[in-house]
């Protein structure tokens, strides 16, 4: 796993897609991906097929290794790999009509815009024709790779979140096990927090500020089994008693330490994806993070004594052992001149167990098929295993796509950031949040 590439991160990705997704939507209509396919798959594949992906450096080599397995199984096919193509480049290329066969994105947020606009072709005819059994793909993953019943993408690895905790700090504070509930998390965090003589924070048990590193509505949703939109695409966040309880819990936590103290402390912390990450330096004793952190620690802080555990949940609401999952998605571009070759490559990368294991072992992300999660070839240590286990949990969840690139998550985050600082009438603010999300969804279209 590269220690520099953008992770599959929440609002950064969602808002970027919302801003650049118009490039794709403006460039094609929902009918542009219509196609006629042969009644049966070709028995002998020959030719060259292109693959555009965002990986660079060592990670690009991992993808190349997985592709080599496809070429070995199909000796008549050559894969022309275009590495380092981020989502914006991919969107612009598809919109301009370039010959792209398979596009691999780091964001689930593109699915709504790519499916609704026709930028990626509908895969259902291929899946039905070849009788591809998608049951090996976990339910939540099947959910985020389709939009309003249209499947235009398949998964290719994912990120999940869990709790990371500093074992040495726990032992010093006399805490014997990681917290399972939010009440336990807060109690342990306050016990682990220490202060300088001037009252400023020296070490923080857990940073409750929204948008600190991976603190986001998505990664906190499993704490309460939080839901986002109803069947018509309208926001249910503002009317959710569960979300209100979580926001209230978080605000009380912030207030108990002090918003200004937390902001001052946070402003002095290192960058999330740098060696001076606050968990890696010991300045924060617990944090919600992704499986990729295990690779960062191995590379940057190999002597760190830490453990991992499922994300704590609010008693009576969340399902302990579940998580939030989102990840890389891939599809066949609307302008593909070799759709059968593209389909064969896409199907291999997304549904072949060995291909998924090869990529997961090299990239240290999470496989998106159960057979790979359970494969004895998957390299799993004690801390990485937590992420593998929560990824396969039946209650693991994701967030639904929308035509504007799941921009509602960005709207929710901005609301929460403002509320944790200023407070106010939460009921009124939540009502306004729903209105803002619904208005934006209506403007984005179907």
Number of extended strands: 11
Q: How far apart are the first and last residues' alpha carbons, in Å?
A: 36 Å
Please write the string of helix (H) and strand (E) elements: HEHEHEHHHEEEHHEEHHHHEHEEHHHHHH
Rg from alpha-carbon coordinates: 22 Å
Mean pLDDT: 91
What fraction, in percent, of the residue positions are helical?
Answer: 40-55%
Number of helices: 19
Low-confidence stretches: 1-34
Structural class: alpha/beta
What is the global morphology? globular
Largest sheet: 9 strands, mixed
Instruction: Note the beta-strand portion.
Output: 5-15%
What is shown here, in short?
This protein is of the alpha/beta class. The strands form two sheets. Strands 1, 2, 3, 6, 7, 8, 9, 10 and 11 form a nine-stranded mixed β-sheet that branches. Strands 4-5 form a two-stranded antiparallel ribbon.
Describe the structure.
By secondary structure, the chain is of the alpha/beta class. The chain has 19 helices and eleven strands. The chain has helices at 10-27, 57-73, 87-95, 110-117, 124-129, 139-144, 167-173, 182-192, 217-220, 241-257, 259-267, 278-281, 292-300, 339-351, 353-363, 370-373, 382-391, 407-422, 426-444; strands at 47-52, 77-82, 102-105, 146-147, 150-151, 154-166, 194-195, 201-206, 284-290, 306-309, 325-332. Strands 1, 2, 3, 6, 7, 8, 9, 10 and 11 form a nine-stranded mixed beta sheet that branches. It has a two-stranded antiparallel ribbon with strand order 4-5.
């Amino acid at each position: 796993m590269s220690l520099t590439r953008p992770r599959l991160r929440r609002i950064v990705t969602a808002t970027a897609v919302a801003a650049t997704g118009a490039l794709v939507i403006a460039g094609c209509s929902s009918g542009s991906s219509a196609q006629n396919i042969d009644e049966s798959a070709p028995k002998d594949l020959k030719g060259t097929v292109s693959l555009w992906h965002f990986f660079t450096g060592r990670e690009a080599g991992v993808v190349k290794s997985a592709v080599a397995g496809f070429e070995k199984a199909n000796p008549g096919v050559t894969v022309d790999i275009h590495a380092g193509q981020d989502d914006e480049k991919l969107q612009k290329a598809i919109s301009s009509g370039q010959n792209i066969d398979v596009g691999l994105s780091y964001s689930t947020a593109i699915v709504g815009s790519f499916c609704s606009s026709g930028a990626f072709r509908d895969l259902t005819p291929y899946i039905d024709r070849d009788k591809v059994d998608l049951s090996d793909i976990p339910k939540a993953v099947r959910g985020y790779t389709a939009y309003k019943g249209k499947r235009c993408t398949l998964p290719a690895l994912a990120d999940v979140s869990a709790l990371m905790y500093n074992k040495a700090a726990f032992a010093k504070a006399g805490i014997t096990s990681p917290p399972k509930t939010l009440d336990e998390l807060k109690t342990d965090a306050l016990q682990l927090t220490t202060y300088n003589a001037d009252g400023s924070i020296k070490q923080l048990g857990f940073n409750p500020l929204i948008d600190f590193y991976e603190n986001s509505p998505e990664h906190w949703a499993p704490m309460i089994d939080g839901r986002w939109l109803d069947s018509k695409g309208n926001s249910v966040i503002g009317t959710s008693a569960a979300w209100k309880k979580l926001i209230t819990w978080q605000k009380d936590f912030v207030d108990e330490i002090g918003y200004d103290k937390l902001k001052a402390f946070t402003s002095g912390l290192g960058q999330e994806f740098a060696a001076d990450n606050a968990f890696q330096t010991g300045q924060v004793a617990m944090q919600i993070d992704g499986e990729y952190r295990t690779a960062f620690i191995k590379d940057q802080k190999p002597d760190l004594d830490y453990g991992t555990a499922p994300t704590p949940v609010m008693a009576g609401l969340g399902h302990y052992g579940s998580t939030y999952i989102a990840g890389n998605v891939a599809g066949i571009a609307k302008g593909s001149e070799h759709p059968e070759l593209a389909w064969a490559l896409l199907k291999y990368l997304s549904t072949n167990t060995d291909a998924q294991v090869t990529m997961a072992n090299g990239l240290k992300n999470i496989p998106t098929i159960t057979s790979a999660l359970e494969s004895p070839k998957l390299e799993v240590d004690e801390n990485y295993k937590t992420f593998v286990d929560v990824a396969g949990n039946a209650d693991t969840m994701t967030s639904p796509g929308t035509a504007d690139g799941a921009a509602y998550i960005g709207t929710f985050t901005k609301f929460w950031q403002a509320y944790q600082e200023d407070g106010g009438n939460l009921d009124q603010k939540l009502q306004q949040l729903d209105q803002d999300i619904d208005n934006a969804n209506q403007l984005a279209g179907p």
